[in-house]
Amino acid sequence: MTDEEILVGYDGSADAEVALAWALAEATHSGRPVRLAYVFEWLTVAGWLGPGVAPGVWPDETARREVEELVRRAAGEAAARHPGLTVHGEVLDGPPALVLQERSAEAGLLVLGSRGHGGFTGLLVGSTAVSVSAHAHCPVVVVRTAPDATPAGADAEAGPVVVGVDGSECALLALGWAVERAAQRRVPLRVVRAWSPTQYRSQGFDPEEAAATERASLDEDLAPWRETFPQVSVEVEVTTGSAGSLLLAAARGAQLVVVGTRGRGGLRGMLLGSVSQQLIQHAPCPVAVVRER
């Protein structure tokens, strides 16, 4: 495994298939190899393991062989559909969230479905996706399969890449990652900056002056990226309001929305900010959560 690989959490579920489709589409743009990782947790083999995989009792070697065949077949089919890509598959042991977090240290990108076979129907996004998004060592993309979600794959890649930027270190990392994706896909970049009048508490508060200050700060953040990727069309939205609500609105019709783990309003002890959590739960398109390694 290399730090350039796209690692896909795969368990044969519908959500995992959608995540795999997104990862393969990403790989066609970046040229990176793709690795499917099925995390085999012995203590939960009484649950559903995958298509054609019967429940067993620990240590059920037959079930493990069936899982290995499932992954081998899925990787082979993916490689056949994308002859220019390198696709591998592997079966790992341990708690899925923990194992994927550890493996993310060796990957360039980790892609997850919103829920796997262990997900509860009432949850929009499963505990594994939330936990891994908070703790992974590389950027994480969560792909939802909700009725309002944009389908994954190349056919859904006409929309812009949306990114939330508030001037924080996490947001600036997200901005750079989003610009690179927009350039790879040859689509517009939409940059959203939400600000609050409470940030300007001095006497004689001037809304127009405050808005101009926010816009100037964002232009400064964007300047090096405009120079590096002049071919990327950039649309900027600077407005007051809830960052989560504004980004959810901007995500409609987008192919991807990108955020940092925490914004400038995030509490130091929180590994995943409220805006990031809101988006991975409710955005109608895949969500990328970007962090520094």
Description:
The chain is α/β, with parallel strands linked by helices and 293 residues long. It folds into two domains: 6-143, Rossmann fold; 157-290, Rossmann fold (3-Layer(aba) Sandwich), CATH 3.40.50.12370. 38% of the residues lie in helices and 18% in strands. It has eight helices and ten strands. It has helices spanning 14-30, 61-81, 96-103, 127-135, 169-185, 207-228, 243-251, 274-282, and strands spanning 6-9, 34-40, 87-93, 109-113, 140-143, 161-164, 189-195, 234-240, 256-260, 287-290. A ten-stranded mixed beta sheet has the order 3-2-1-4-5-10-9-6-7-8, with helices on both faces. Strand 2, helix 2 (61-81) and strand 3 form a beta-alpha-beta unit. 44% of the residues are buried. The model is unreliable at 117-125, 151-155 and 265-272 (pLDDT under 50). Residues 6-144, 160-291 form the UspA domain. Belongs to the universal stress protein A family.
List the helices and strands and how they pair.
Elements: E1 6-9, H1 14-30, E2 34-40, H2 61-81, E3 87-93, H3 96-103, E4 109-113, H4 127-135, E5 140-143, E6 161-164, H5 169-185, E7 189-195, H6 207-228, E8 234-240, H7 243-251, E9 256-260, H8 274-282, E10 287-290
Parallel strand pairs: 1-2, 1-4, 2-3, 4-5, 6-7, 6-9, 7-8, 9-10
Antiparallel strand pairs: 5-10
